[in-house]
Amino acid sequence: MALGSKYKTAPGAGTIAALILVLVFGSPWYGDWAADNTNENTAGGWWLRLLHWPAWQFDTSDSLRDVVVGDLRAILLVLLTFLFLVLLPGSQLARARGTISQFFAGWGAYIFAGGLASLLATLFLANPSMLGAFQAAGSGAQYGLFVGWVVGLASLGGRRGTRV
């Protein structure tokens, strides 16, 4: 039996989209490809490089702390996306599934998750600073703003969890 849209939840679909974005575009292989094949001075090249922002790695030449902090940002991005998708009221207040409020709730959840994940991960750096935390949060929110529409689209049409 195929699982139809009546079993799709907006937070679940948005979280799966976030996980796929992080696994595929945050991978070291995609990062190497983007660095070698794109021009950062063009809009398309800039966006393709931005997709790699929640980078995760398995590089043994880096310190364990740097690897964990990089991976922590990617993990927190997915977990916080789910949390914000559940907590944001836009799609909960919508009368019908598939409304524009679900799109904006998913997009907003990814913006908030990107900023907060980067802010929290920065606190685990060797010498964290307030300026560094603010700059990291800004880069995470920038990533969410330009990539979060994918999560917003994935959230469209899903129901809001269990039925009461």
Automatic annotation (TrEMBL):
The chain crosses the membrane at residues 12-31, 72-91, 103-126, 132-156. Keywords: Membrane, Transmembrane, Transmembrane helix. This is Uncharacterized protein. It comes from Actinoplanes cyaneus.
